[in-house]
Amino acid sequence: MKSQQQQFAEGVLFTDFYQLTMAQVYHRMGIHESKAQFDYFFRSYPDYGIHQAGYCVNAGLETFMDWVSEAYFKESEIDYLRNLKDANGRAMFTPEFLKYLQGQSVATGLTLRAVPEGRVIHPYVPNAIVEGPLIFAQLIETSLLNHLNYQTLIATKAARIYESGMGQAMLEFGLRRAQDRSGFAGARAAIIGGAAGTSNVGASAVLGYQPSGTHAHSMIQAIVAMGGTELDAFEAYAESYPDACILLVDTYDTLNSGIPNAIKVFEKLKAQGHKPVGIRMDSGDLAFLTIQAALMLNKAGFPDTKIVLSNQMDELVIWQIITQIKEESARYGLDADNLISRLAYGVGTRLITSEGDPALDGVFKLVAMQQDNAWVPAIKISENPEKTLNPGYKKIWRLYDQSQKAIADVLSLEGEDLCHLEAIHLHHPTDQTKQRVLNCAQISKVEKLHETILEDGKLVYEFPTLEQIRQTRADDIQRLHSGVRRLMNPHNYHVSLTDKLWNLKEELIFQYTNGTKG
Ligand SMILES: Nc1ncnc2c1ncn2[C@@H]1O[C@H](COP(=O)(O)OP(=O)(O)OP(=O)(O)O)[C@@H](O)[C@H]1O
Ligand SMILES: O=P(O)(O)OC[C@H]1O[C@H](OP(=O)(O)OP(=O)(O)O)[C@H](O)[C@@H]1O
Ligand SMILES: O=C(O)c1cccnc1
């Protein structure tokens, strides 16, 4: 059972106050059940300074839907709202409005179409489209943005870090440095993005993963302080976990004490018929130390043990370490590829906090209202053309070239079917001078990106398992051109509007800027 505080913090009140005050205005005007349509999209890839992402990995949908399924206005929440007063002591919310809300789910009447988790996504492409009663579409905004922005941000960072490790295991170690309770969502998103597991035990339990980990310096320090030695500490750990033994070798002196002691313990384990898993190094020049560790482990007859690296890792540090290993291995008679395949990475702070860019700029914008059973496109115009909305009821497509790589995401009007066109005329979303025509011969596949998740308030989607989501992510990244996929200065992936959508947008901009509307 949730405590009252937990219920308030995580239930239907997990929102911004203005959603509720606007909801009351809609109710008062009698337009609260008018049908509205909102797009969720982000405007720019996370920018980590000199290395901006070239794609994002979508995540957070199932967690958001978990919230939706429990978010309804219970007695206690209605009581809380009833007691809110303005500066003059006047109730903020009327009894009529609260009576309307009482017992209602935020999903009432809503239809949600969204890009599945794990899929690669790009700026300006509506990742989710919410359609239904204005009041409820508005009320879910904050929670949707909170869940999808954060998890997409972390899944994206995780994908980059995993990619930089060239397929070797990357473990999420960030709970201690996560922003308070974001640790669970961060661990989930990291796994979607490529982490093989997490040290976060609660998240592992919920997600059905084996928790991952080694041990801390404190275990050795404690045993040494009580009169033992580093070797005693290693032996005690190995006796407890003979088949899951990874020893942290950098507490005192990695090369002269940690690794020699680990080897002694590994020899004992081997003699007992066990297979030691490896060592972890958490300080120093990790490329140099990896080579030295491999030389020592190989010589002692442990050429397969893993070498786990940690300490403020991110995609650039991993890339740099691998580059150095590639350059230096031959000099020591080591095969660089073999050595790289022995590595694993424990990544904490810079993954769970998305170091370099702390938030995805995802937004939730009204794009259409229904009048007399027809959708009327809505637009918001900005002096900055990139902030002018793509109006109306839309469909979202991805085009693939003859090498099966994704070449463009396309926003069309709802009635358009891109599968059966001879040629597709594409417009840059804001720059009139940038247009191109793709003909059938250039396109191997046209794919719709949205699945229907909610229909008239009912869940109609079967959520994939995390393993399936991870496979989706791997397949989608594989289908990116390497220029889009690279860590630094990636190619700009094309997001385009069809002719019809472009014309509608132009027409609306004309009407609103010439005063015939608005
Ligand atoms: N060969 C390498 N190339 C690039 N970066 C590296 C290499 N080896 C380690 N690093 C990274 O450099 C940073 C080193 O930071 P720092 O000097 O604080 O670590 P340290 O030497 O281990 O210190 P401490 O003992 O305080 O942990 C870390 O982010 C680490 O991951
Ligand atoms: O560097 P991060 O990417 O955040 O990875 C997690 C870090 O957390 C631990 O250090 P900490 O000093 O917290 O504990 P320890 O005493 O176990 O080293 C661990 O040893 C890593 O260095
Ligand atoms: O298990 C580990 O090695 C671990 C877990 C959390 C943080 N740092 C390391």
UniProtKB/TrEMBL annotation:
<dbReference type="InterPro" id="IPR041619">
    <property type="entry name" value="NAPRTase_C"/>
</dbReference>
<feature type="domain" description="Nicotinate phosphoribosyltransferase N-terminal">
    <location>
        <begin position="13"/>
        <end position="149"/>
    </location>
</feature>
<dbReference type="InterPro" id="IPR040727">
    <property type="entry name" value="NAPRTase_N"/>
</dbReference>
<dbReference type="GO" id="GO:0016757">
    <property type="term" value="F:glycosyltransferase activity"/>
</dbReference>
<keyword id="KW-0808">Transferase</keyword>
<comment type="similarity">
    <text>Belongs to the NAPRTase family.</text>
</comment>
<dbReference type="Pfam" id="PF17956">
    <property type="entry name" value="NAPRTase_C"/>
</dbReference>
<keyword id="KW-0436">Ligase</keyword>
<feature type="domain" description="Nicotinate phosphoribosyltransferase C-terminal">
    <location>
        <begin position="394"/>
        <end position="505"/>
    </location>
</feature>
<dbReference type="GO" id="GO:0005829">
    <property type="term" value="C:cytosol"/>
</dbReference>
<dbReference type="GO" id="GO:0034355">
    <property type="term" value="P:NAD+ biosynthetic process via the salvage pathway"/>
</dbReference>
<keyword id="KW-0662">Pyridine nucleotide biosynthesis</keyword>
<comment type="function">
    <text>Catalyzes the first step in the biosynthesis of NAD from nicotinic acid, the ATP-dependent synthesis of beta-nicotinate D-ribonucleotide from nicotinate and 5-phospho-D-ribose 1-phosphate.</text>
</comment>
<dbReference type="InterPro" id="IPR041525">
    <property type="entry name" value="N/Namide_PRibTrfase"/>
</dbReference>
<keyword id="KW-0328">Glycosyltransferase</keyword>
<keyword id="KW-0597">Phosphoprotein</keyword>
<dbReference type="Pfam" id="PF17767">
    <property type="entry name" value="NAPRTase_N"/>
</dbReference>
<protein>
    <recommendedName>
        <fullName>Nicotinate phosphoribosyltransferase</fullName>
        <ecNumber>6.3.4.21</ecNumber>
    </recommendedName>
</protein>
<dbReference type="InterPro" id="IPR013785">
    <property type="entry name" value="Aldolase_TIM"/>
</dbReference>
<feature type="domain" description="Nicotinate/nicotinamide phosphoribosyltransferase">
    <location>
        <begin position="171"/>
        <end position="389"/>
    </location>
</feature>
<dbReference type="Pfam" id="PF04095">
    <property type="entry name" value="NAPRTase"/>
</dbReference>
<dbReference type="InterPro" id="IPR036068">
    <property type="entry name" value="Nicotinate_pribotase-like_C"/>
</dbReference>
<dbReference type="InterPro" id="IPR007229">
    <property type="entry name" value="Nic_PRibTrfase-Fam"/>
</dbReference>
<dbReference type="GO" id="GO:0004516">
    <property type="term" value="F:nicotinate phosphoribosyltransferase activity"/>
</dbReference>
<dbReference type="InterPro" id="IPR006405">
    <property type="entry name" value="Nic_PRibTrfase_pncB"/>
</dbReference>
<comment type="pathway">
    <text>Cofactor biosynthesis; NAD(+) biosynthesis; nicotinate D-ribonucleotide from nicotinate: step 1/1.</text>
</comment>
